[in-house]
Write a structure and sequence with these properties.
There is one protein chain. By secondary structure, this protein is an alpha+beta fold. The chain has three domains: 53 residues, no CATH class; 114 residues, 2-Layer Sandwich (Beta-Lactamase), CATH 3.30.450.20; 128 residues, Phosphatase 2c, domain 1 (4-Layer Sandwich), CATH 3.60.40.10. It is 34% helix and 32% strand. The chain has seven helices and 18 strands. The longest helix has 38 residues. It starts with a helix and ends with a strand.
Length: 342
C-alpha cells in the first residue's frame, strides 16, 4: 500500500489496494475480521485515502461473480408477463453481446443461435412457456470468437393456475469441453482405424507365413529319420514372419535341415524369410556346400532391398549311410537342429 501511495503521489494515477482483512481489539476482545480496500487519489500535493469496507453481502456477490467467471456460466431471469429480462454480466460475455444493448427476451433467444440449432431451441422454449416443461438445451452461436457451444438450463415459476409467469436459469459456455470431447472422439477414431490397419496386416502376415511355411500336421519320415516340428513364436499377432525351417530329402538320399530367423517382423520379414528359405534349399540341391551356401546367402542379403537386414541360419546335412550329421551356422544367434534315427 505504501508503494502504491508513493506511485500515486509521483505520477498522479489512482491506486486501489487488494482486499485485506483487518481485526480490531476492544477491551481485550478481538473482533471478527473485516475486509477493506484502500483507494488512493492525488489532490494537488496531497493524497486522499478512502477506506472502503466490504460487507458480507459484498463478498458473497464477489464470490458469485467469481463462480460464474470460473465456471463459464451466468444467470438469467425472464418475466413472462411483463416481457422483461435481467442477465448477469457473464451472460453478456458468453454471448458476446454489448450490455448496453440489454438482455434478449426468452422468445428471441433462438434467433441468436446458428440456423441449424434454431428449430430445436424454439421448440424447447415453446414447451417451457406453454407446457411448463423445464428446459435444458444445447445450441451454438457464432460471434467474433468463432462458434461457441452453449447450454441453456431454465425452469418456469407458475402462478396458482399453473401458467408460467417467470423463468429463471443459467447459460453455460461448453466450448472448451466440447472441443475436448471432439478431440477425444477423433483420437478414438484414429485408434480404431489404426487397429483395423494392424488387424489387416496381422491377417495378411499370418496368411503369407502359413502359405510359405505350412506346419506339418504329423511327423515326416525323411532319410530314415522321424522329423517333428514345434513352432512357438515369442510374440503373437503382428510380430510374426521372421522364423522358418525346412526339412527335405536331397536327390542323393541325404536329408537337409534348415532353421533360420530374419531380424524384424511383419510383411518385410516374411518376404526375406521366403527368399532365404527357398534359395538355401536350391543351392544345396544343386551341389553347393553348406558353408558355400551360407556365404552366397550372405551376399544375397547384403544386396537385397534392406541392406541393413540381418538373419541367422543353421544348415545341417544328414548322411544316413554313415549316420553322420554335418552342420554349419551363421548369424547373430546360435540355433540347434535335432533329428532322431528310427
Amino acid at each position: 500500500m505504501w508503494r502504491g501511495c508513493l506511485a500515486t503521489l509521483a505520477g498522479g494515477e489512482p491506486y486501489e489496494s487488494e482486499p485485506f482483512a483487518l481485526r480490531t481489539v476492544v477491551d481485550g476482545v478481538t473482533s471478527p475480521a473485516t475486509t477493506y480496500v484502500v483507494q488512493v487519489t492525488r489532490l494537488e500535493d496531497s493524497l486522499v485515502l478512502t477506506w472502503v469496507r466490504h460487507a458480507s453481502s459484498d463478498r458473497q456477490e464477489q464470490r458469485l461473480a467469481d463462480l460464474q467467471r470460473l465456471g463459464d456460466l451466468g444467470w438469467a431471469n425472464w418475466n413472462v408477463a411483463g416481457r422483461e429480462a435481467s442477465w448477469s454480466p457473464q451472460v453478456f460475455t458468453i454471448l458476446g453481446r454489448d450490455p448496453a444493448d440489454g438482455p434478449v427476451r426468452l422468445t428471441g433467444l433462438p434467433a441468436l443461435a446458428v440456423p441449424e440449432d434454431r428449430p430445436a431451441l424454439s421448440r424447447a422454449v415453446d414447451a417451457l412457456l406453454h407446457e411448463g416443461l423445464p428446459l435444458d438445451a444445447p445450441f451454438r452461436v457464432r460471434g467474433t470468437r468463432g462458434v461457441r457451444h452453449l447450454r441453456l438450463a431454465a425452469e418456469p415459476v407458475a402462478d396458482l393456475h399453473g401458467t408460467p409467469v417467470e423463468v429463471h436459469g443459467f447459460l453455460q459456455d461448453l466450448t472448451a469441453r466440447r472441443r475436448a470431447e471432439l478431440a477425444l472422439v477423433e483420437s478414438e477414431r484414429a485408434i480404431v482405424t489404426q487397429h483395423d490397419v494392424l488387424q489387416a496386416e496381422r491377417t495378411l502376415v499370418a496368411r503369407l507365413q502359413n502359405a510359405l511355411l505350412p506346419l506339418p500336421q504329423r511327423a515326416v519320415e525323411l532319410a530314415g529319420l522321424r522329423v517333428e516340428v514345434a513352432y512357438l513364436p515369442a510374440q503373437a499377432g503382428i510380430h510374426v514372419g521372421g522364423d522358418w525351417f525346412s526339412a527335405i530329402e536331397l536327390p542323393d538320399g541325404d536329408a537337409l535341415f534348415v532353421v533360420g530367423d530374419v531380424a524384424g517382423h511383419g510383411v518385410g520379414a516374411v518376404a526375406t524369410m521366403a527368399q532365404l528359405r527357398f534359395t538355401a534349399k536350391g543351392m544345396v540341391i544343386t551341389g553347393s556346400s553348406l558353408t558355400g551356401a551360407l556365404a552366397r546367402l550372405n551376399t544375397l542379403l547384403l544386396h537385397s532391398r534392406d541392406s541393413h537386414g540381418t538373419a541367422t541360419m543353421v544348415l545341417a546335412r544328414y548322411q544316413p549311410a554313415r549316420r553322420r550329421l554335418v552342420w554349419a551356422q551363421a548369424g547373430h544367434t546360435r540355433r540347434c537342429c535335432c533329428a532322431t534315427a528310427r
